Every structure is written in structure tokens, then in C-alpha cells.
Amino acid sequence: MNRDNTYQIANGLGFTFSSAGEGNYTSSPEMFISDVAARGESLLRAESRLYSLTRTWVRANAQLLRPDGLSSSSKDLSPIGLRFLLSICLIAQDSDPAPKRWNSLIRSLSESIGRDVIYLYPRNYPQDRTDEFLRGAGIHYRRVAFQDNRKFRDLRWIIERNPWIRNRVLMTVSARADIYTYLSIHSDAKEKDICDELGVGKSSFYSIKKSFDLIRLAHG
Amino acid sequence: MSIDVNHVLERLNEYLKQESVSAHFVTCGGALIYLSGHGGRVTQDVDVLEGFTKALQKASESVAKELNLGEDWLNPFVEVYVEHFPPGWRDRVDLVREFSNLEVFGVSRQDLISNKLKAFMDRDFDKEDLLLMKITRGEFDKAVSFVKSFKDFDVVNQLDIDILRGDIFDE
Known about the structure:
- The complex is a heterodimer.
- By secondary structure, chain A is an all-alpha fold.
- Chain A is 57% helix and 2% strand.
- Chain A has helices at 3-12, 29-38, 48-61, 67-73, 79-95, 103-113, 132-136, 155-161, 163-171, 175-185, 191-198, 202-218, and strands spanning 118-119, 139-140.
- By secondary structure, chain B is mainly α.
- Chain B has a 3-stranded mixed β-sheet with strand order 1-5-4. Chain B has a two-stranded parallel sheet with strand order 2-3.
- Classes of the chains: A mainly alpha, B mainly alpha.
- Chain A binds chain B through residues 16-19, 44-46, 48-49, 51-52, 121-122, 124-126, 129, 142-145, 147-148, 150-154, 157, and chain B through 1-2, 39-40, 42, 44-45, 70, 122-125, 127-128, 131, 156, 159-160, 163, 167.
């Protein structure tokens, strides 16, 4: 995902980056979050606003995310990218009404990064002034504030425009909803691409694709 | 959601004109950064540091209704942070937009920078505004002197400033 695309995908999720124009709805929220995490240290330097806004968005919308989708979309992340992803997952777990959904992914990410601490701020910076979510991901850095929720469009706007979110609301947050969305956007997509990107097995894919083809037939 | 600052000020002026009243206020924050020529800076409100009169409030409610904005898009609550601006800021405000019935003043560039540095003490993302404004070392140093004048300034804040200086000036 190139940089401009990331900001367009963000606008499709209700962010309001004026320089990015209209929203782009071609990627799942998890692909977006993984792409943000992939930026690594730049999230605390030149793109601190993107990071704080993404954390804020995740805190407000954790219940609409798929941890298994993040597991799949994060497989190519660098070690530092995994840490930033973990920090975001910790925020999601903290605000999700069903926090146990995140246990497996958080455990897996924690095992991947190990017990080392990366110091992106001086070691003598007091622990109680560091960011708790970055700390949980083994990154020592000062506190990163959340932003005002008014910086985002409301959920109704997002549901009206973003098929990923709309279909998750309609069909529950599930691989089923995402396969339907993916096929709606990329009708010629190959099975391997879909399964890899969405983190679903072949049998789930074929079962849902069959339903999707029937619906398409029924609607002409 | 973000607002079109120029457009909302134009509409505000129209409603003041309809009521045959005039108003002026002092703004700061993201809206002022936008009005100062940094068009990419998004904001969800226009801060009113001083001058939030009943006439302005009534006009802002009309704009909110017309454009389907939150009722506090014209935000008077930032008045409580007036001490987070250097003393004498009132004498240094600049006229940034002028309409038939509305004058919008902004705190001076230096005062805005000083305020943003103060905000950075609590909110890491304010650093981006300081980067966006391409502040000079002189401006940064003046802002640091202001921030150090607060009683709660401590060694940890000094560390934040030292690191920020390195980030901004690539040291």
C-alpha cells in the first residue's frame, strides 16, 4: 500500500485527512491497521498524528475488527512493525466489550517480539510517564495521547459508504462478511489471494463463495 | 468531523449580518494554523480564545443547523486555557480574516508556537503542528522559555524538549 493510498483508506474508515480526498474502500480495516503498523518508528516522528488517530479510531471501533484478520495481514511485518501492531491490539482489547477475542493474537504477537525492550526514548525517562500500550509492546516511549473523537465521521457515515464495515454490521464481524465484501469489490480475485489476505481456510472460502454466486444469480 | 474553516466563517458572517450585529473574536489552534496558510491542517472546530458573545453564539448555532455541524464547532471552552498563552498575547493578535460583520483575529505566530509547545507536554501529536509550521530555532527557544515558566515544569519535561529539539532540527 503506498502512502497516499493509506490516507485514502483511512478516509474511507471515517478519518478526515483533507489532503487525501475521497475515501478508498478497497482494503479491509485490518489491512489498513497493518499498513499503519508497518511504518514503524515514523509513527512517532513524522506521522505521529496518523498513529494517534489510528489508536483513537481503534479504541472507538474495536468491536468491528477481526483479530484473526489482523493475524493474517500482519505476517510480513518487521519486528518493530509487530510491536506497533501489538500496541494497537492492546488498545482494542482494552475497549472491546468482548476482550477475550484478542487473547490469542496478543499472545502470539507477544511471543514473536520476545521480552526485549526497545528504547525509543531515553532509558531514564520515568516508567509512569511512558505510554502504557507501547510499553505493553516492549517500546519505551513517552505517553501518546488519544485524539478527540470529533475528528472522525460518525458510524452512520462509515456504514453508508464502507462495505467492509457495513457488511460486518449486517452479517456480524466475521470471515463470511469479509469474503462477501472482497468478492463484491474484486470479482475476479483468486482463491489464494482472498484466503491469504483475509486469513480464511479454503473450505470456508468455497462455502461462502457458493452462497455469493447464488445471490448474484438471484439478483441477476 | 472536519470543517471547512473559510466556509463556516463566511456563513457566520451572513448570520451576523442578518441580525444586524457585528462581532470579533480571537482564535488559535488548528483553525489558526489553517488560516495562516497551512491548508492541509484539518480541524473539527474553531477555537475562540476571547470574544464569544451571545450574538456570536446565536449565529454559530444557525451555522451548525445549516451545515449539520456539532453545536460546539465554534468552541469557547478553550478560554480556560488562556494561561497557556504567554502574557501580553492580547497585544500581539493579528487580523486573519475580515468580513462585513465579523473580524477574526489570531494569536501571533510566536504565541501560537509557545502554546503548541505547552500542549506538546501532554499530547505527543502536537509535535506535528510544530513541524508543519517550520519553526525556527529562535521561535523554539522562546517557546521553551515560556514553557519553563510553569511551576509544574520538571526534568521529565526538559527531556521531552531536548528530544523534540533533536527531532525538529535534525540534531
